[in-house]
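Input (structure):
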């Protein structure tokens, strides 16, 4: 059966879901950003993801885009909300206003649509919004996507989780499974608050793993030990595993920093030590990296790319920015090489468009992940990238 589906938000989650579901269903991608709407109409992806580009070019997709609320919300079977929920430090919680506003707009249009929240929200949010509107048709379904591989992770999901046990939740689970290339993927149905908790605990565990191997690396760097030997020796224990163990300047990106903070906020009145320690460890790591770079006494520090990983165009909250701010606070001059920036400065630091000029002017080049582009100036490069992977 073909369903009419609207997806709200043309970011990583929304864009990749649109392409996934448009293989078999009529999909409208709604966004208030006219440029993103135009990109989709021109068969262009709003995010950097090679597989999405391939599907838009070579697959038959029933996909359109609009910024018209009435068109997007009228006569649809499912409306999926994938709007951003940034962490508000003052409120000590996710800013869920975009989700709330979208739900309010949906209810203003007379329809029988089931609402699926894909945005990350605090534990208890979906239950509360269902109570507010005296309904049970709002369902939470967490996403587990990597930047640069969002469509791949939708096509080959690790699991599908629905925070709802109603018939529509089961229908939506089948829609996701049938559009994927893993029809036997394990599917779990639970209460919405439990599904919300899964999302936050999963990302916090990933942050814990990053923080652990980063602290291991800080120790080996301080004691002049071989990080590679120690990580390989530790990781060959099958209970630990030889994966997700490449040191970095800290966990960053859009999800892990905000999700760990939200989980900590949800621990209000519940004893904990570990969740706070994960967040604190990430700050300590950036302090240590910055102090290590300063110990080389450079005059000009070059920042090679702001993105967290290869294949991503997203550098929101990247850890290298935290290191950069700490170095700038000590009065050192910083220059940047970031091809995706079409501006002359970034936080008052000069952006250099020529890679050769950048390499020549930098006394030391710091990069979260190594690159073949820097092989000819290897003696200038500072990175904690041991395995050459994301």
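Output (sequence):
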């Amino acid at each position: 059966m073909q369903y009419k589906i609207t997806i709200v938000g043309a970011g990583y989650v929304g864009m990749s879901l649109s392409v996934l579901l448009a293989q078999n269903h009529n999909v409208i991608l709604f966004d208030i950003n006219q440029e993103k709407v135009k990109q989709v109409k021109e068969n262009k992806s709003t995010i950097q993801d090679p597989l999405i580009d391939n599907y838009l070019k070579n697959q038959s997709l029933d996909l359109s885009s609009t910024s018209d609320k009435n068109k997007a919300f009228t006569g649809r079977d499912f409306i999926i909300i994938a709007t951003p929920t940034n962490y508000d430090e003052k409120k000590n919680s996710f800013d869920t206003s975009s989700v709330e506003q979208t739900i309010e707009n949906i209810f203003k249009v007379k329809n029988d649509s089931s609402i699926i929240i894909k945005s990350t929200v605090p534990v208890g949010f979906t239950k509360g919004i269902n109570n507010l509107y005296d309904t049970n048709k709002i369902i939470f379904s967490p996403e587990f996507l990597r930047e640069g591989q969002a469509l791949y992770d939708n096509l080959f999901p690790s699991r599908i989780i629905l925070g709802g046990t109603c018939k529509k939740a089961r229908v939506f689970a089948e829609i996701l499974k049938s559009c994927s290339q893993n029809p036997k993927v394990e599917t779990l149905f639970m209460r919405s608050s439990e599904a919300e908790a899964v999302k936050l605990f999963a990302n916090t565990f990933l942050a814990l793993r990053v923080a652990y191997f980063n602290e291991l690396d800080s120790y080996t760097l301080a004691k002049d030990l071989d990080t590679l030997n120690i990580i390989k020796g530790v990781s060959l224990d099958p209970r630990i595993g030889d994966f997700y163990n490449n040191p970095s300047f800290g966990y960053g990106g859009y999800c892990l920093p905000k999700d760990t903070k939200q989980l900590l906020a949800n621990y209000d009145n519940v004893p904990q030590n570990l969740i706070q320690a994960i967040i604190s460890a990430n700050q300590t790591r950036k302090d240590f990296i910055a102090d290590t770079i300063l110990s080389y006494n450079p005059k000009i520090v070059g920042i090679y790319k702001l993105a967290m990983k290869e294949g991503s165009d997203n550098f929101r909250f990247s850890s290298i920015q935290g290191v950069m701010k700490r170095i700038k606070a000590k009065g050192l001059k910083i220059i940047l090489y970031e091809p995706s920036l079409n501006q002359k400065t970034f936080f008052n630091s000069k952006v250099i468009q020529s890679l050769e000029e950048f390499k020549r002017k930098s006394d030391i080049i710091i990069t979260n992940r190594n690159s073949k582009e820097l092989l000819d100036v290897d003696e200038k490069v500072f990175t904690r990238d041991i395995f050459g992977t994301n």
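Notes: Residues 192-222 form the longest helix (31 residues). The longest strand covers residues 4-8.
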